[in-house]
Design brief:
With 251 residues, the protein is of the alpha/beta class. Helices cover 47% and strands 16% of the residues. The protein has one domain: Aldolase class I (TIM Barrel). Pathway: Cofactor biosynthesis; pyridoxine 5'-phosphate biosynthesis; pyridoxine 5'-phosphate from D-erythrose 4-phosphate: step 5/5.
Amino acid sequence: MIALSVNLNKIALIRNSREGNFPDVVAHARTCLDAGADGITVHPRPDQRHIRPHDVRDLSSLCAARNIEFNVEGNPFAGPAGSYPGLLPLVLETKPQQCTLVPDSNDQLTSDHGFDLKKDGARLEPIIQQLRDAGIRVSLFMDPDKTQIGLAKEVGADRIELYTGPYAEAVARQSKDLDPIFAAHCAAAEHALHLGLGINAGHDLNLINLPRYRTLPGLQEVSIGHALTVDAINMGLANAVVAYVNCLAGK
Ligand SMILES: CC(=O)[C@@H](O)[C@H](O)COP(=O)(O)O
Ligand SMILES: NCC(=O)COP(=O)(O)O
């Protein structure tokens, strides 16, 4: 079974476009969980344009009460900014089951690459250790590069999250590069499995590109937000979650 963790960033983005609490992020999390989602993902950023620290706290409580996986993603090197305490203090306070470290710069529109661990490995290692000591599983956002995945193991990660943006784009463009891109993801996954790393994946996954990606060797979890939220506009949030759960199950 491949777990579906719903990313609620886009629900928070709509809320933040006005004053008030509409739509209510926690209520939408409940809808996702009631519809069969296996977990909730958020990706707070220092500019707080979508998920904010209070959302992380509220969703952490909800997921703990339901014994559901909570996954907090973000840049471990982004320090405090305004009322944003920084990823590490927020994660150590709220204790999600999983923290996915992502090498975003503060001004990025969205995540668009995995870690270069030749550059960042040494400064990531103590952060990974600190999170693991706190009982939090650590996943690293990675491109499908075998050398880099070997380094992910060396710096102490539990899992990798394969960055699926280029795969999704190749599907959307019906690109001739699709087969080699997916083959590279499969080779990276096989290598991760061989090293004993768990495998997650995410970014721009949708109902069109998931049927192939779900066949990735050893895939344990996908986190999906943008496309699922767009589908929810058409079919309703609960129906969208059911559609993704079924798609992941090959139905
Ligand atoms: C790591 C990743 O791919 C996601 O966390 C993504 O960056 C978050 O989604 P938004 O960019 O839509 O907020
Ligand atoms: N880790 C990827 C994620 O949480 C959601 O990415 P997207 O589906 O919003 O592109």
